Amino acid sequence: MQNEEKGWSHYRPTKTLWAWSIVGASALTMILGFTWGGWVTSGRADVMRGMAVRDAKAELVAGVCVHNFIRASDAEQNLKTLQAKSSWQRNDFIKEGGWTTIAGVDDAVTNAAAACVDQLVKMKELPQPSNDVVTDS
After folding, report:
1. 12's torsion region: left (phi>0), alpha (psi -120 to 50) or beta?
2. For the segment 11-63, what is each residue's pLDDT rounded down to a tens digit?
3. Cα separations (Å) of 18 from 9, 15, 21, 22, 28?
4. How many domains is the chain partitioned into structurally?
5. Is 6 helix (H, G, I), strand (E, B) or coil?
6. 98: region left, alpha or beta (phi > 0 left; psi from -120 to 50 alpha)
7. Closest Cα partner for 108 from 120, 96, 90, 118?
8. Is 100 a domain residue?
9. Is residue 78 part of a domain?
10. Which domain holds residue 99?
């Protein structure tokens, strides 16, 4: 009767039980971490980094493309032509116009033309280009 009164306070698990408890807790922690915790492997992190770099380059070139498009002498007519084209022809129109071309960059930037088209199609009218020059003073 004396052992029954002590209950869990005097329980001593075996070393085997301790080892399996640690293994189970570690496995559960990893499963929860990789599914809901936001953990990623280094391979997945490399893929995510590559996607972020590609998207950042495309957005940068798209901004340059919009600027070049607006600064063109026939920008109004080009915008009407762009909006009249079907969605799968717009990227080619931008590439053929040379607005995604950046001096010193030989390779085409992936998704730059598509991002440029998205920004241009959303415009109801072209903003007036400014001749402001930015200086470092």
Report:
1. beta
2. 888 999 999 999 999 999 999 999 999 999 999 999 999 999 999 999 999 99
3. 17, 5, 5, 6, 15
4. 1
5. helix
6. left
7. 96
8. yes
9. yes
10. 49-122
Q: Could you please report the per-residue DSSP string of 31-94?
A: HHHHHTS----HHHHHHHHHHHHHHHHHHHHHHHHHHHHHHSTTHHHHHHHHHHS-HHHHHHHH
CA-CA distance, 128 to 137, in Å (whole number)?
Answer: 25
Question: Is-contact 94 117, C-beta < 8 A?
Answer: yes
Residue with tokens 């498009």: 69
Residue 39, Cβ neighbours under 10 Å: how many? 13
- Is residue 110 within 8 A of residue 54, CB to CB? The reply is yes
Residue owning tokens 């109004």: 76
pLDDT of residue 1: 45
Burial of 44 per CB tally in 10 Å (0-12, 13-18, 19+): exposed
The one-letter amino acid at 52: A
Spatial distance between the Cα atoms of 61 and 107, rounded to a whole number of angstroms: 12
- The pLDDT value recorded for residue 102 is 85
